[in-house]
Amino acid sequence: MTDSGTLAGQVVAVAADHAGVTLKDALADDLRAAGAEVVDLGTRGTESVDYPDYGAAMAEAIAAGRAPAGVLVCGTGIGISIAANRNPAVRAARCANTTDARLARQHNDANVLALGARTTGVEVAADCVRVFLTTAFEGGRHQRRVDKLAGR
Ligand code: RB5
Asked: Which GO terms describe its molecular function (predicted)?
């Protein structure tokens, strides 16, 4: 995540359940086309799977440092963000528009963007990804609040 306005060179993990896989794959293609390195944690088909497994896979990847940022997709973005947020290394924000995505970075230092494939169109989702990954955390008073999220 940078404020340089570019996706090139960023490492971004992506994961989705069956409801989100088509959008996840489209967003991953966009990221690669923009020069980002994508770590695809699945799922890879439309066979029914359980979103907690993919939220947990994202959390493990973030906690292990495989990627500094991630994009999750399920039907609504809700279940998979709840799952990812069970890991203290994750601050996943379910966003429905670019204002959500910008403020999730500026104020919350969110490191995972969660999107709903059944609720957000592909162009809005792609805009959210771009804004999320190119907006910096503001720090300052927000750092104190983010520290409290981590129990510090
Ligand atoms: C799967 O049908 C759906 O429940 C899941 O993708 C998600 O929307 C849950 O929050």
From this structure: isomerase activity
CA of 117 to the centre of ligand 1 (A): 9
Residues in contact with 65: Cβ distance below 8 Å, sequence separation at least 6, in sequence order: none
What is the CATH classification number for the domain harbouring 133? 3.40.1400.10
**Cα separations (Å) of 8 from 5, 69, 105?**
9, 14, 18
Catalytic residue numbers?
74, 107
Q: Which two tokens stand for residue 144?
A: 């104190």
Q: Which atom of ligand 1 is nearest to the CA of 76?
A: 8
What are 98-122's pLDDT values in tens digits? 999 999 999 999 999 999 999 999 9
C-alpha to C-alpha distance for 82 and 22, rounded to whole angstroms: 21
